[in-house]
Amino acid sequence: MPQISPHTNFTETNKIFQWLKDLVFLFKRSTNSEKHLAPTSLTTIAMSDVETTFDRLLKLPGVMGAILVNGEGEAVRTSMDSTSSSIFAGKMRPMVKMARALVHEVEPTDELTYLRMRTLKSEILVAAENEHMIILVQDTNILDEARRNSSSSSKKSE
């Protein structure tokens, strides 16, 4: 059974997951070119929201990089070098596909919304919407320190 750190701030993690999900949804919506939309309408607004949300994620403590991947598996926006972006984009697609298959096999009416992996050095968060996805890579040392500080400051205010 996995151990849950007493310093884990679930509210903060859920907020990050929601931002990831919103970003994928906005990106998906902005790239679905509909003929009846004017060039400055929904598509432009959605792309502006994508940029804003992407930049907000990059400012979070411990974030080493973020990659926005389109339906073809290409990194269309990234804060990482091209080699790392290509590796993450290419390797995460099959991982998400396998995780989706597992979820459907275990519970056919359920679906994968987020994938979270933690290694000794980094934590990888993936939000997927159909074939679009956002990958967020965080430094576990900085992340753990931020969680400890957040936990201790909330205990002091009680």
Automatic annotation (TrEMBL):
Residues 50-138 form the Roadblock/LAMTOR2 domain. Pfam families: Robl_LC7. SUPFAM superfamilies: Roadblock/LC7 domain (SSF103196). This is Dynein light chain roadblock-type 2. Belongs to the GAMAD family. It comes from Drosophila pseudoobscura pseudoobscura. It comes from the Eukaryota.
